[in-house]
Each structure stands twice: as structure tokens, then as C-alpha cells.
Amino acid sequence: MKQNNSANEFILLGLTQDPRRQKVVIAIIFIFYVGTAVGNLLIIFTIKCSRTLGSPMYFFLFYLSLADSCFSTTTAPRLIIDALSLKKSISYNECLTQIFALHLFGAMEIFVLILMAVDRYVAICKPLRYPTIMRQQVCAILIILSWIGSFIHSITQIVLVLRLTFCGPNLIDHYCCDLQPLLKLACMDTYMINLLFVSNSGALCTTGFVMLMISYIIILHSLRNHSAEARRKALSTCTSHIIVVVLFFGPCIFIYTRPPTTLPIDKMVAVFYTIGTPFLNPLIYTLRNAEVKNAMRKLWNIKRISEIKMN
């Protein structure tokens, strides 16, 4: 991609410059990334192969796990490689690619979480109309629209980056490329671009969070008219979703809704947002979900039986 400046590459300073701490960082990030990949791929495989997990909720959970896997992959491998390298450089085009992927899968996660809240709202508040409203074709269209919305959001980030002019230092005080760290390196007035950035990413995070919290408040309020067993099951599901929403949107809002200022905890908050949350999601959705655990056990037993027969 063409840029009207002299920036051909950037140097990522990473999480720390201390060699001993870098070893600890590599170990922790590696464990988290492997756990994220294994956990989310296990959920994807279970939902894809299990006949009992065919409801819209698990259809959306499939895409949430897919988005989580891709989201962490945009940052974790690069962070590990840079921690092992002497020169932590990233080319201009690679930087743009990372920004695009980061926002594509991050936005997709937001949209899927909203769809999951809509699904729970219809299932709990309008149970008789649920099969009609949340039929398979509707769910597929909603996922396609989510991908389109995520793509538009990511392209907007790239358009904003292409408007920046770089002519000085190329040191990014971060472990990945994002628009906000790049704004600090630009040798131009970035007030309007930052305003557009906050209006885009910040508004997406804040609006998504508010919509989700309102929907879950309505859902929880409507449970008073249900039986004790129905309340217990709905509360278990909604609690898992609310935990994921808070863990994901808290750091997201902190990073994307403020002026381009640097705080000491920025990078740690970003690590939790890009690597920590995707690691926790599989644990939350499996440990608190009896149907997913039962489906995993059935698939495991089927696999063991088939192996015994082959032997």
C-alpha cells in the first residue's frame, strides 16, 4: 500500500525491555495462546460435530470461538516472536494488516456477543415465537451482516491510518500495531483523526456494551415470571454471557474511548483484552455450561469406542 511519508517500517518496543522479564512474558503468553487455541478449537469441533448443540445459541458460540481464536492470533504469535528477536521491526504493510485483522475479529466478537444477547432475549421473553424468529436462515443472515459490519469497521481504521504522515521516530511503545500508538508518531495535527477514531472504535465498544447490559437487565427482570428451574437455567446462561461482556468490553472501552495519551497500564490492559479474554471465554462457556460438557463427553466416548473397535 502506498503512503505519503518515509515510514517503511516500525520498531515495536514490546511489553518490556528487560531480558529476564521477556522470558517470563514469552512463557506466559505462550501458555495463554496455546490454551486459547486449544479451548476455542475444542468448542468449535464440539459444536460442529455434536447433534445436541444445534440451537442458535451454539451457532453463535461457534463464531464467537472462531473470532476469539483469530483475534488472539493477530497479536500473540507476533509478541512471542518479537520477544525472541533482537530487532522487533514490522513493515508498514504488515502493520496495516495487523490493524485490519485486530479490528476485524474484535468487531466480529462484539457483533456476535450482541447476537447472543438477542438470542437469549427472544428465547426467554418470547419463547413461543422463538423458533420462528431465530430460524436457521435468519441466524445465517445475521452472521453475514456481522462479517460485513466488521469489515467496514476495519477498512475505516485503515483509511484513517493512510491519512497519517510519518517523518520522524518510528518507535511504537506497544507490542502490536494499532491506530492510537501510531497517532503519537504522526508529524501532523491528529485531532480530527483521533476524533474519528474514537467515534468509530470507541462508539462501537460503548454502544455495544450499553446495548448488551440493557438487554440482560430486561432478560433478568422478565425471569420473575418463570419457574424456579427455568430461572436457574436462564441465570446460568446469562451469567456466563455477562461475565464475558464485562471482561471484553471493560478494557476495550478503556483503550478506545479516550484521547491519544499513554498510561503505564495501557499495554497490560491491551494484553488482557487481546489475549486474556479469548483465553477465558472457553473456560467460562464450558465450565458453566452442562450441555457443552455433556456433548464433549459423548464425543470423547464415541472416539474411545471407535479406537477400541479398530484395535
Automatic annotation (TrEMBL):
PROSITE patterns in the record, alphabetically? Answer: G_PROTEIN_RECEP_F1_1, G_PROTEIN_RECEP_F1_2
Compartments it resides in: Cell membrane; Membrane
Query: Which Pfam family is one of this chain's hits?
Result: 7tm_4
Swiss-Prot/TrEMBL keywords:
Cell membrane, G-protein coupled receptor, Membrane, Olfaction, Receptor, Sensory transduction, Transducer, Transmembrane, Transmembrane helix
Q: What is its main location?
A: membrane
Q: Which GO terms describe its molecular function?
A: G protein-coupled receptor activity; olfactory receptor activity
Q: Which residues cross the membrane?
A: 24-45, 57-80, 100-118, 138-162, 201-223, 235-256, 268-287
Q: Which CDD domains match?
A: 7tmA_OR4A-like
Family the entry assigns:
Belongs to the G-protein coupled receptor 1 family.
UniProt-recorded name of the protein: Olfactory receptor
